[in-house]
Amino acid sequence: MMKHFTTLQPMFLYILPLYLVNSKQRLQKTTNKERVMNLSLENTNFNISLNISIDYISSDDHKTFFQDHITKFSFNNSKLIIKLERSDLKTSSKIKCTSIESETEVEISGCNLSFKPGQNRSILNFPIGYRYIFKTNKKYEFSNHTIMFDIDESGFQSIQFILYHVSIEFEGYTQKCELNSHLSQNVYSYFNSTDVIRPCESGDGKDPDENDDTSSSLNFYGLMTQNLGLLAILISVFLLVCITASLMIYAIVRHRRKPKNVKKVKEPYDWL
Questions:
Q1: For the chain, what is the HEC assignment?
Q2: Distance between CA atoms of residues 31 and 209, nearest Å
Q3: CATH number for the 32-201 domain, one of 3.20.20.390, 2.40.160.110, 3.40.50.300, 3.40.50.2000?
Q4: Mean pLDDT over each residue of the chain, to the nearest integer
Q5: Transmembrane residues, as ranges (predicted)?
Q6: CB atoms within 10 A of CB 7
Q7: Range with the lowest mean pLDDT among 56-60, 140-144, 147-151, 154-158?
Q8: How far, in Å, CA of 214 to CA of 199, rounded?
Q9: Domain-by-domain residue ranges, the chain?
């Protein structure tokens, strides 16, 4: 893990100026209205709301796509196709995945991300091995997630996905899944990973509580910050107990120190 972060340090020094140049544009785009789309599979209808950015970052280039640049988002013959284009930069990107629909779930897998950095530049292709499984009885909310994919081991090229807010609302949902994070907390992912991602579910593929229709959250940092008052009370009670116990022990020890010419009488604390 330390080696991984070491390789990121030189990349950061190279891409920081490019990132700062695009920061003003990024701020303007992310304040725009979310992109809302109504989509249908064979037996499932759902709505998607997007406020995202996709960045291609290298030592000499930085291209960014926002939700406004989506020109196609569709399911067709078990295929999910997402196209993004920026005519001003003469660059484009395409995400193509396999979709599998069952009675209770939708699986997205076998994705391939292609990216054309410029008009006279070669197309880059990146297969993504992750499998994403969503339950059709849930509404999913993702906020402030930064996902990084390193293109090569040197760390000088990467693809960055920022999910400012993504909502996937299946028709007739009865449960909610909310996953909130912080944009500054990067999640490093790997193109060759074959992990199965089931949001708001435990490792065995089951919900923590099938009857709970409230939100589920994995934001442990937020949980702690929201309960600082309770934490302070618990610490205060613990300190009070420690102080009280110390005073009792001191009183017991002092009480047991009697003059030598006094005959010892059995005391109630002799069993200690």
A1: CHHHHHHHHHHHHHHHHHHHHHHHHHHHHHCCCCEEEEEECCCCEEEEEEEEEEEEECCCCEEEEEHHHEEEEEEECCEEEEEEEECCCCEEEEEEEEEEECCCEEEEEEEEEEEECCCCCCCEEEEECCEEEEECCEEEEEEEEEEEEECCCCCCCEEEEEEEEEEEEECCCCEEEEEECCCCCEEEECCCCCCEECCCCCCCCCCCCCCCCCCCCCCHHHHHHHCHHHHHHHHHHHHHHHHHHHHHHHHHHHHHCCCCCCCCCCCCCCCC
A2: 36
A3: 2.40.160.110
A4: 73
A5: 228-253
A6: 14
A7: 154-158
A8: 14
A9: 32-201
Q: Count the helix, strand and coil residues of the chain and give each as a percent rounded to the nearest 5.
A: 25, 40, 35
Please say whether the beta carbons of 37 and 46 come within 8 A. Answer: no
Per-residue pLDDT at 55 exceeds 50: yes
CB 13 within 8 A of CB 24: no
179 pLDDT tier (thresholds 50, 70, 90):
very high
Rounded Cα distance between 169 and 134, Å, is 11
Residue type, 162: I
Please name the helix (run of DSSP H) or strand (run of DSSP E) that holds residue 102, with its range, or none: none
Structure tokens belonging to residue 211: 């009857």
End-to-end CA distance of the chain: 51
Mean pLDDT for 62-80 is 93
